[in-house]
Amino acid sequence: MVKVWLTSKNIKTTRPIKKLSERWLGPFEFLKNIGSHAYHLKFPQHWKSVHLVFHVSLLQPVKKSTIPNQHQLPETAVIVEEKEEWEVAWVLDSKLKRITLWYLMEWK
């Protein structure tokens, strides 16, 4: 089973600022070649609105870690009704900056 990372530059997210988004999404399972430069990926069931075929320039192979006993953590974001939702472990801190309340969170 070959896994690849997908660049997020062409994927619309719900984050208000693009530079705060993850640069790479995944890892996703590679299913088959479509021609010489396109690949079909297997996405989770809740990613219904994302196209499944991507050009090779948008993909990066997953490299095995050189650190012993280190494993890739599974993705924790869930897309519910076209919006990402993350599960919060607890709120570590908060501060008021101008008129906006900012939170420091620990995610599950």
Automatic annotation (TrEMBL):
InterPro entries, alphabetized: SH3_Tf2-1
Pfam family, one: SH3_Tf2-1
Residue ranges annotated for the Tf2-1-like SH3-like domain, each copy included: 3-62
Superkingdom, taxonomy of origin: Eukaryota
Protein name, entry field: Tf2-1-like SH3-like domain-containing protein
Annotated source species: Austropuccinia psidii MF-1
